[in-house]
Amino acid sequence: MVEGLRERKKQRTRQALIEAALRLFEEKGFEETTLAEIAEQADVSTRTFFSYFASKEDVVFYDTTARLEAAISAMESRRPDETVTGVLLRIIEESFEQATSYQDLTPADAALRMRLILTEPALQARALLLLFDSQLRLAKGLRDAFPGLTLADAAAAVGALIGAIKLTVMATLDDEQTLEDILATAHRAAEVAISGLRTLG
Q1: What is the pLDDT of residues 23-36, one digit of tens each?
Q2: Can you count the helices (H) and strands (E) in the chain?
Q3: Domain containing residue 110: CATH number
Q4: Annotated DNA-binding ranges (predicted)?
């Protein structure tokens, strides 16, 4: 019982820090916002902030590891009759479904986070590092899930899919788009990429 209460309190604090950070990033700008300001907005100490996040960037990318692990798990649990493109499409669908479940962020905050990642130089740099690591792990996971697939083909498939989504969203992004608009664009890009990957199965 006590453990449950403690865990819920930690989750509320983490959520408060994420929401406070996004509000300040929107109002002041990412670079101009300090860690102390985020902590103050969330009504916690700077020391408490560091108990949850190592940096401002970590707040924005708070769910990256969990989403990657979910994708790897989906590959590992593929059905015997599931194709390469079938697995990739399922992973994308599940990722989009999670994004629209609003478990952590409101639709407006989720769209704001997406815009920040795609437009703030510091976040773009961090996103590239995370993207490289994620794509490599996904490629290896896909190769392991399909023993007949070479690592080169797996990497090409993952890179084509994620690259198509990222570039399409960046090319069409504007301040008026809702999260649903962004995800619809991403979904269309995924469909186009998947259609070109069907030679892999």
Answers
A1: 999 999 999 999 99
A2: 10, 0
A3: 1.10.357.10
A4: 34-53
